[in-house]
Amino acid sequence: MLNRLWLLFAQAVTILLAAWFIIATLKPSWLVNTKMDSLVESVTLKEGSYDGSEISPGSYHEAVKKSMPAVVNIFTSKTGAKPRARKGNGSNPSDPLFKFFFGDQPPDAEPSSSLGSGVLVSPEGIILTNHHVISDADDIDVALSDGRKVKAKIIGSDPETDIAVLKIDVKQLPSPITFGKIESVNVGDVVLAIGNPFGVGQTVTSGIVSAMGRDHVGINTFENFIQTDAAINPGNSGGALVDTRGNLIGINTAIYSNNGGSMGIGFAIPVNLAKQVMESILSNGGVSRGWIGVEPQNLSKELSESLGLAENTQGVLLSGVLEGGPAAKGGVQPGDVLTAVNGNGTKDVRQLLNQIAQIGPGNEATLKILRKNKELELKVQTGKRPKPKIQNQ
Description:
It is elongated and about 130 Å long. By secondary structure, it is α+β, with helices and mostly antiparallel strands. The protein contains 8 helices and 22 strands. 33% of the residues are buried. Helices cover 20% and strands 30% of the residues. The strands form 4 sheets. Strands 5-4-1-2-3-7-6 form a 7-stranded antiparallel sheet. Strands 9-10-11-14-13-12 form a 6-stranded antiparallel barrel. It folds into 2 domains: 60-82 and 93-287, Thrombin, subunit H; 290-384, PDZ domain (Pdz3 Domain, Roll).
């Protein structure tokens, strides 16, 4: 009797499972809970009416479309570098490797190669980039925005402003970038940084102009930076900083960082300075600057008091004068305090360097001097500023 009941039970279960399988396969909707069905009987979605070709309000697409083809990637390499042990593993912000936070490796690292960016500025194949991107390079490759990779040669470079000029010989180049005017750039303006960060490919980041005329940063000898919070990362060196019209307003150069990445403080060489240096390199193979042969020192409050200067005296102490140099020939003596050049006040050493450099070699400069609290005017014939000693970047 029990066996018969068990057989009937087993047959019933088998028939039910078969029926469930057939329904689940052919009519799965029959198995959906009717209560859940009533909650999602219909769904209405609203989609935008535009066709996808319209530009979103506030977009910088047109500026990027205009300027990005002119931004190139630069790959450099150096052969015969002598390897040495690296200090640290990159986890310590004071690690020396963090000095090379633009993707440029130390020349003694393995492999001895570096990555940067550049800007095509003319249909003749002239490219602007940073001096530190190509310094000491034995081989320079430029990757264009259309995918072509070509060799480049160095026309010249200026370590004191960190500007270098390259040339490539290629037919049918992408459209060169359009130069903007620095007078049109204001603090608070939206700007775009274009480059090849970390080697991932061309990338655009946005931000604003945080400050203009930033100096005393300690990066270059002659500084007049645009400061921006647009994200600039390793590999962006030499890339373009453009306005919302797509015009070039600066060459991305450096960042302030304690971890090697962007912290919202980036610096770009303004377009007017970059253009001036480029034109000088193209015309003369380099940049000629004025020089008078003095050793200047900033005036501190204590130093002014020890010299017996009047309170709030602004100027630069000339602690040394090169024997036989332009300043010495003009009557300048050690211990003189220089307060003005050609009628323009001199507040510190960096301003003095800029003032004399801009006069150019072979021209006359009028120096206003304080000597034992007596004011003098001396005429000095400027010489040519010696080339800086190039150190490994």
